[in-house]
Write a structure and sequence with these properties.
2 domains, 11-stranded mixed β-sheet, two-stranded antiparallel sheet, cytoplasm, Hsp33 family molecular chaperone HslO
Length: 308
């Protein structure tokens, strides 16, 4: 039976061709990505009633889009935040070519009802838990994962704590989200300090450049990120102009779910006959993808458990 989905969960068909702007600062051991998701953020975040928690979803999408643009291989980067707060689980991931997706689970007994215009504190929404990044380079390579406890009041601070603790990579992360005129928007600025070469004097100069870049990055405002009249280059020059901004070709971002009927069928075959019978309703087993909302329906009579 073909896959189907309700009209309210229509799969977003939108590509932002210049969503991610890679750049580096000339003469400095600093590289970065400016992320502006625009209509893609609204297409994804408006699919479910997340309330104010959608701010975290938009920031997470911007974060994985920015980080995955730095991958040197074909694969995917996934962020998972799990806690005991109103948002019990957030999963966002992006492939190397900008296919992003998001899933958020809100605690049934503690759903946030704040107005979406009000951005909530991440530490309150997540509570106590963990923050993890996973890198997947394909079926022939083991996944790499780093996990740290949740530290910080914002998702930006939690991400910086992860890179400082798990990767020992000096990183500055600014995450932005907005709900205005009934539309969502999200963006990010990611700075990374790359390794410098040379002696002590060279190292000291590189460290000064890094600290200066962080100071300049702290001046970036949400109004600038969401200003449609500011091009990426103009915005980066406004923030880092005297440091010498060099931009690379922009990268696209789009909605991209990697669910597949064959994958779900292989999952069902791990269950025994009794479990499969219990899942079936009128002879049909329905499985829904939490990322895209597509319902996959399987004829119970055509599913046989894999032999032990």
């Amino acid at each position: 039976m073909p896959a189907s989905h309700p009209p309210s969960a229509a799969i977003p068909d939108i590509v932002i061709n210049d969503a991610i702007q890679p750049f580096h600062l000339s003469g400095s051991p600093v590289r970065g990505r400016l992320v502006r998701l625009g209509g893609l953020a609204d297409a994804i975040l408006s699919r479910k009633a997340l309330g104010a928690a959608a701010h975290l979803g938009g920031q997470a999408l911007s974060l994985v889009a920015g980080m995955s643009a730095g991958l040197k291989f074909e694969g995917a980067l996934s962020l998972q935040v799990k806690g005991d707060g109103p948002v019990s689980l957030l999963v966002a991931d992006s492939t190397h070519d900008g296919a992003v997706r998001l899933y958020m689970r809100l605690a049934e007994d503690n759903r946030p009802h704040d107005l979406p215009e009000m951005e909530p504190r991440a530490d309150i929404m997540f509570g106590k838990g963990y923050f993890a990044f996973t890198i997947d380079q394909g079926p022939k390579t083991d996944r790499q994962q780093g996990i740290v406890t949740l530290e910080g009041a914002s998702l930006s601070e939690m991400a910086e704590h992860y890179f400082a603790t798990s990767e020992q990579l000096p990183t500055l992360i600014r995450l932005f989200s907005r709900f205005q005129d009934g539309k969502w928007d999200a963006g990010a600025l990611v700075l990374e300090r790359i390794a410098d070469e040379g002696g002590r004097e060279s190292h000291d100069a590189a460290e000064d450049h890094w600290e200066t870049a962080k100071t300049f990055a702290a001046t970036l405002t949400a109004e600038e990120v969401f200003n449609p009249h500011l091009t990426h280059s103009a915005l980066l020059y406004r923030v880092f102009g005297t440091l010498g901004v060099a931009v690379a070709p922009p990268r696209p971002a789009r909605f991209g779910c990697r669910c597949a009927r064959e994958k779900l069928l292989s999952v069902l075959r791990n269950f025994g006959d009794d479990d499969l019978d219990e899942m079936a309703e009128n002879g049909v087993i329905t499985m829904s993808c939490e990322f895209c909302g597509v319902d996959y329906r399987f004829d119970r009579n055509n599913i046989a458990p894999d032999p032990v």
